[in-house]
Hints:
Blueprint: H1 2-23, H2 35-45, H3 50-63, H4 67-71, H5 75-82, H6 88-105, H7 114-117, H8 125-134, H9 145-155, H10 168-177, H11 183-196, H12 215-220
Helix pairs in contact: 1-11, 2-3, 2-8, 5-6, 9-11
Iron/sulfur cluster binds near residues 154, 198, 210 and 217.
Amino acid sequence: MVQKLYNDKELFSKLILEWWHKHKRDYPWRCTDDPYFILIAEMLLRKTTAQQVEKIYNTFLSKYPSPEILAEADEDYLKELLRPLGMEHKRAELLKKFGLTVKEVYNGEIPSEIEELLKLPGVGMYAANAVLSFVYSKDLPLLDTNFIRVIQRVFGIKSEKTRARDDKKLWEFAQKLIPPGDSKHFNLAVLDFAALVCRAKNPKCNLCVMKEICNYYKGSVGYR
Ligand code: SF4
């Protein structure tokens, strides 16, 4: 049983990466290894869609190419720019605070240690791990509700915590799925797979490459 789970984990990583190389989505924030650009993308992407963020991302970075310039932003202009994403007042306030903290506490440089990243306004575990995975190739998962849905379905596991995202065991499980040294591609693969195939509603099981190992699928078709 343990051996089977181990094999399924390896197979999961292999299958999802193979799928991703054929179906990946391209967004401007995926082509950079600048930690400031990555954190801005993560902050903008919260509670909105990638399509909405795509409309303003390049303009945002051409207006505010560094934390120092963001710290000095005119708040009214910033709100206007952020309006298509919604919650523009809150977003503008947080982004300015973020710019100001990086400028004043970290001399304009985004820190590279998790403890320091988590001290930045608006930066949580997900965004901090995005920097560490995409910029520094650390084998860390970007665990969010979508990632959790995929691994719960495929491996038939269930978190005992009310907020699964706070479950240490789930983080450890997800981390073990990452092919060493390839966390960026793996994390992006899970993100795209959850959005395009293993969707919250109406997952495309019949077209899915995980069918052979997926507990959810086997349960739904009475697999023997
Ligand atoms: Fe998700 Fe269905 Fe694929 Fe399983 S078979 S991973 S539930 S889409």
